Amino acid sequence: MRTKVAIIGAGPAGMLLGQLLHSYGIDNIILERKDRDYVLARIRAGVLEQGTVGLLENLGITERLHHEGLIHDGIELLFGGVRHRIDLKAASGGKVVTVYGQTEVTRDLMDAREKAGLTTVYDADNVSLHDFDGATPRVRYQKDGVTHEIACDFIAGCDGFHGASRQAIPASAVQTYERVYPFGWLGLLSDTPPVSPELIYTNHSRGFALCSMRSPTRSRYYVQCSLDEKVENWTDDMFWDELRRRLDTEAAESLVTGPSLEKSIAPLRSFVAEPMRFGKLFLAGDAAHIVPPTGAKGLNLAASDVHYLSMALREYYDDKSSAGLDNYSATALKRVWKAVRFSWWMTSMMHRFPDADGFGTKLQQAELDYVVHSDMARASLAENYVGLPY
Ligand code: RFL
Ligand code: PHB
Question: FAD-binding domain: which residues (predicted)?
Fold first, then answer.
């Protein structure tokens, strides 16, 4: 088999890249380790920046998003038992975010890809990358016990944090930066109406909590938990009780509970691998960087990465210029590091740190008070939350 761009991973980064390249007339094949249903069952992100929605709009696949997505022009910060609204729209000069689940984005992209008749190989085992530092990059994989090889011009490593692409780069050629946070998020999805029309980010002495949603009838909640917590030890009732304790009286009283559809624990980490290019291999999305979910930036960074990469590949094929490809890593990393900073800042401001002393707690309270009472600070939060320009 031969293609221009072999894409590894059918998460949002790989699927969006495939569709953008197709719209520019650049053929591509996607290799995915899991099956389609497995990919769609992963409950993850829920908040889309306007830039991400814009990319999907340009592809003409936003019919369902505009119908079912919820426009949010504010969020609430809850601390000291009181909720404070940040008017994102007013503070950012008119920008908003859209609440639409990652699973729905992925489904829309998968449907569009199938409709366009493009090749996606699911259940591709033992994907390996070859000669990406030379003239003839190739990707090998096994399917049903048979080995296949794809010759290509470029490889896009969109296979997430634990994928094969970043691992294939010689360690001496990559510099990594990492911060592992001393807690995780226990998340629960339920078919219950959201407790409030907007997201509530909570700083409580028992730990962070987040009230989010997927639709007017489906809620997504998170509570900060310790890293040695086991999800099996959390009954639904325990989760609801813990969430209620961290909310203000009004929210705690109006919280509608119900059986969980999904419950999982995610550790929190900031991670960046530099550069995002090695020869003809380009990394995008979680394969290159991870942010803690507090700023809702992971999926949106995957989108901006593949926007830059698709534009660079278009320039290569249409204008015979490698300038965009040569600049890809530096351009993407500039935006990545700003999101890393914002996610780290939101995480630091909202969570209970096991080693926090009185000084640390007082600083956190001052920071929160400053953010909700200063026009400048609110504007900065809003500018980052709705998404910095590409
Ligand atoms: P993904 O989604 O991990 O997809 C990678 C795909 O590659 C496949 N794969 C392989 N395929 C072939 N061969 C191999 N060797 C392979 N190894 C892996 C995998 O099966 C998978 O299908 O990475 P991608 O595409 O870069 O997308 C990144 C996003 O998924 C991620 O950043 C977000 O989910 C992060 N995130 C959030 N982002 C937001 O923008 N807004 C949010 O509100 C938000 N909330 C969240 C989140 C992540 C969370 N968790 C679970 C970490 C909330 C949570 C709880
Ligand atoms: C979610 O709905 O899953 C979600 C929303 C906002 C975040 C993180 C996760 O910051």
Answer: 2-343
What are phi and psi for residue 57, nearest 5 degrees?
A: -65, -45
For residue range 256-288, what is the model confidence (pLDDT) as tens digits? 999 999 999 999 999 999 999 999 999 999 999
118-163 residue pLDDT tens = 999 999 999 999 999 998 999 999 999 999 999 999 999 999 999 9
- The per-residue pLDDT of the chain, averaged, comes to 97
User: Please, what is the angle between helix 323-350 and helix 375-386, to 10°?
Assistant: 130
In 3D space, the residue among 30, 160, 56, 50 whose CA is nearest the CA of residue 109 turns out to be 56
Q: How far is CA 260 from the centre of its chain?
A: 22
**SS3 (DSSP) at 290:** strand
Testing ligand 1's pocket by substitution, the residue of 158, 159, 304 carrying the most ligand atoms inside 8 A of its CB is 159
- The structure tokens listed for 192 are 């219950």
Structure confidence at residue 43 (pLDDT): 80
Please give the distance, rounded to the nearest whole angstrom, from the Cα atom of residue 337 to the centre of ligand 2: 20
CA of residue 75 to ligand 2 center, whole Å = 11
Which domains are assigned to the chain?
A: 5-50+64-70+101-178+269-347 (3.50.50.60)
Q: Is 349 helix (H, G, I), strand (E, B) or coil?
A: helix
Give the three-state DSSP class for 45: coil
pLDDT reported for residue 45: 83
Mutation test residue for ligand 2: of 210, 219, 351, the one with most atoms within 8 Å of CB: 210
Q: Could you tell me if 77 and 365 are in contact, meaning their C-beta atoms sit under 8 angstroms apart?
A: no
Task: Output the furthest CA–CA distance in the chain (Å, rounded).
Answer: 64
From atom 35 of ligand 1, which residue's Cα is the shortest distance away? 298
Residue having the nearest C-alpha atom to atom 54 of ligand 1: 44
